[in-house]
Write a structure and sequence with these properties.
TIM Barrel; eight-stranded parallel β-sheet; alpha/beta; 9 helices; single chain; globular; binds zinc ion
């Protein structure tokens, strides 16, 4: 069993063969996939995928890239989407100071507003943080998000910060870059953070792990992330697969 805790199977790069990709994921041993929203449009697509495929669950939210177009009406639509049975989280939300596609001020405002939404509807949150480690941490700490549940998706920060997160009940999700030779920082995170606090993800179609690096990523490849964690920790692949699946089910409250 495996749980790809973060995928974008709604992406147009899957338009030609989405059914086959999802079938391949199932055949390779995946039990669940969480499809994250990144805008209103992709949040609706995530919900539609969750209604079509048994193994897919959805998260709804607006990515920091796109918050510049948000208003309170967007929040209302997101809120109504959270009523759908297989919507199990709000996300991905957060801060991205690498691209700054939206002004920082807007990013902070709508990040906080979407955390409040998650609290209103009592759902966990999925966090995107790029080049905004300290501010993201401060906002999450201030909002005590451990109460609703939270995961740092595609974690790329330091091991020290990761320890601060898990202390507060926040999960760390590891993606494909763990398999890259130069990924010393995330390898240290995989080594030192207890398995009980780790999730695995693909973030497909992005961040393709070795041995498929350079090609389109897909959910079936989450096994390479789990294998890398097993090797780094010196434990079996089965233990990593089983525990990370259990962690994700607990976070997203899937029975
Ligand atoms: Zn992201
Ligand atoms: Zn993503």
């Amino acid at each position: 069993m495996l749980f790809d805790s973060h995928a974008h199977l709604d992406d147009s790069r899957f338009d030609r063969d989405r059914d086959a990709v999802i079938r391949a994921a199932k055949e390779s041993g995946l039990q669940y996939i969480l499809n994250a929203g990144a805008s209103l449009t992709t949040s609706v697509k995530a919900v539609n995928l969750s209604e079509k495929y048994e193994m897919i669950y959805a998260a709804v939210g607006v990515h920091p890239h796109d918050v510049k177009d948000m208003d309170e009406d967007t929040i209302e639509v997101l809120k109504s989407l959270t009523n759908k049975k297989k919507v199990v989280a709000v996300g991905e939300i957060g801060l991205d100071y690498y691209y700054n596609h939206s002004p920082k001020e807007e990013q902070r405002k709508w990040f906080k507003r979407q955390i409040e939404l998650a609290k209103e509807v009592n759902l966990p949150i999925i966090i995107h943080d790029r080049d905004a480690n300290q501010e993201t941490f401060d906002i999450l700490k201030q909002h005590q998000v451990g109460d609703i549940g939270c995961v740092m998706h595609c974690y790329s920060g330091s091991v020290e910060l990761a320890k601060e997160y898990i202390k507060r009940g926040i999960y760390i999700s590891i993606a494909g870059p763990l398999t890259f030779n130069n990924a010393k920082k995330v390898q240290q995170v995989a080594r030192e953070i207890p398995l009980e606090w780790l999730l695995v993800e693909t973030d497909c179609p992005y961040l393709t792990p070795v041995p498929y690096r350079g090609k389109r990523n897909e959910s079936a490849y989450v096994r390479y992330v789990a294998e890398a964690i097993a090797e780094i920790k010196g434990i079996s692949f089965e233990e990593v697969a089983e525990t990370t699946t259990k962690n994700a089910k607990k976070l997203f409250r899937i029975e």
